[in-house]
Each structure stands twice: as structure tokens, then as C-alpha cells.
Amino acid sequence: MKIIKIIFSVSVLTLLLLGCESVNEPISYEDGAVPAFVTIGTEGQDVVAGGSLEVVFELGQTQYENVTVEYTISGDAVEGDDYVFSSGTPGTVTIEHDPESTSLDNGSVTLDFPIQAALGTSRNLTFTLESATTESGETLSLGRGDIGLERTFVINGLGAVPTGTYTYEATGDFGPFSGTFEITQPDSPIVVGGAPYLFRTSNIAGALFGVDVAYAFNVTAGGDVLGAPNAHEEGFETIILDVSGNYNDTAGELTLDVTFQCCGVAGFGYQIVATPQP
């Protein structure tokens, strides 16, 4: 009985010592242990022009000291045009140890995607881990197998529509009317209701108001028209229209579906079909 008690005590002591093993001690793959590692925690995903993204780098085990992570960026996205760093440094991030935290330490960088990012197309932005080193000089593994070593983000840009003079025909609740308007792309986006818009039509309402009513809009890469919530020029802000439609690049045709949400005629509307003048 004494021998059994001694064996049991030694086994418990061994388990306690193993449970207290520091993650900084050498780890044997053959023993089935997981080495200290770092991953890119943010999943690869689609992002949109005008948005932002936080890219998180995280440890698999606490290291009890800061860890410097080096990474590279590849793909056809262009820094400064398609993305900018609003926080963090390109190519390196420091995972700072927080002794008060109950979570594993992590660090991050934040990217902003300008409204004109990847205009009319989509572009790839790939983050790849290159090294991870603790302050004391220990090297950590990169990724966990194939997980988290590399992440690709696809920047989906807004579409483009040709600028210039358009001839249009309109049909709907107000009878047929026709005319011309100018499509322009200002040097700076037009901000309406807190959202940026790249394009502007010089007149979206024909002669219905007796004066030209300019209106801002975007076109997605798929050709869908996204109109501003209201007219943006001073004195016209109370003209509220639902503007949708599409731009067909093959046909060279811009369609604007307009529905009034103001002016005593809410729910009435018309469709404009416009083509660029040669």
C-alpha cells in the first residue's frame, strides 16, 4: 500500500510540473506539443472602396514579453491609391505583452480604402508573415500549419462611367421629355448625407422644376447606380429622390430610375435612358 501511495504522489507531482512548463522552454514536436506561433487572425475577405479594415496579428501562446512581427504585402493593389495605413506601420507590427489581460496578446494595423480605390475593377492585397521574434531573441513559428500564414483581401472598387455630354429620353408619370445633361467627375468626391459620391449629373429632372437640378451618384463595378439621398447644391437640399439604375458599358447606355420622395409628389417617378454624345 505504501508503494502505491508513493507512485501516485510522484505521478501527481510530475503532472503539476508539466502543467507549469513555460511556453518559452524548448518544445518537442515528437511529444505532440504545439510550438509557440503567431498568425494573422483576420480572415481573408472582400472589402469595399470607402471602407476600412483592421488586420490583427495574434499569438498562440503568451510569451510574457513583446513580439515583433515582420510581414510583406503583395498583390496588385497600390499603397496610397487603393489603400492607406491609418494606424500601424507597413511591414512590421509589435505585439505588446499585457500582464493584466486574460486574453492572448495581439497587435494590429488598420487600412483605409479611398473612395476611388480600385476604381472600376477589383485588386488583391495579400499579407504574408515573414518572421516573429520575442524581445529576448526567441523565434516563433509562423502560422499554424497553413492557417494564418497568409491572408488575401480583395478590394472591390466602384465602377466608372464616361464623363461628357449625354442625350436622354425620359418616360414615366410626368409624360415623355428629353434633353441633354453633363456627367462630370469632380476632383474631390461630393459628400451627401456623410457618404462620398464620385459622379454628378448636371440635371436629373428635365424642366420639372424650371431650373437644372444637379444630383450626385456612384456606379458599382457591376454597373449599378447608387444615387445620393438628396440634391446637394445649396438651396436644393430639400429635393429628395430615390435614384437607382445601371450603366451598361457594352451598350454605352446610362439608365436612371428616379422616384420622388418630396415636393408633394412622393411615389411618382420616371426613367431616363441616356447615351454619350459622340
From TrEMBL:
The superkingdom of the source organism is Bacteria
- From the Swiss-Prot or TrEMBL record, give the protein name: Calx-beta domain-containing protein
- Source organism per entry reads Rhodohalobacter sulfatireducens
